[in-house]
Amino acid sequence: MSTTIESPNYAYPARSKGRRGPNLEKAGWIFMRASGVVLVVLIFGHLAYNLLWTPGGIRAIDFGFVGGKLADPFWQWWDVTMLWLAILHGSNGMRTIVNDYVHKPKIRTVAIGAIGVAAAVLIILGTLITFTFDPCPTAADPALLPEFCASL
């Protein structure tokens, strides 16, 4: 006795042999694996520096610590790379969930568009903040600035 199992109703059927052009789903799948590995290295490097290699550990992390860290171009690029990969990794995962579970094309298009807009806004704002952060602005009221700004 044999039983036949019907093919599940996927939002996007399997790629046909006659289709031309890049396989974006495969590229997304590979990106998720590669970005996941790089994110593990970036996140553990971030945590190790902040919690283990900094004298005082977690108690040393304050506004001055973050301001000093973001003044170093190495850490700016480290944090921006971590931010970009985390947002792109997460938004690609959300796109995959939408493709798997949203079956109405119009709703799927709106949801994927909203994910893309949210990712773009977060990447732009995060990058802007990372590279323009100044803990001691020159035009600010000295009473409102942190203590370490007085020595500069």
UniProtKB/TrEMBL annotation:
Gene3D superfamilies, alphabetically?
Fumarate reductase/succinate dehydrogenase, transmembrane subunit
Q: Where in the cell is it found?
A: Membrane
What is the protein named? Succinate dehydrogenase hydrophobic membrane anchor subunit
Alphabetical list of InterPro entries matching this protein? SQR/QFR_C/D, SuccDH_FuR_B_TM-su
Lineage of source species? Bacteria, Bacillati, Actinomycetota, Actinomycetes, Micrococcales
| Annotated GO CC locations | membrane
Q: Keywords for this entry?
A: Heme, Iron, Membrane, Metal-binding, Transmembrane, Transmembrane helix
Q: Which residues cross the membrane?
A: 27-49, 75-98, 110-133
Q: Name one GO molecular function term.
A: metal ion binding
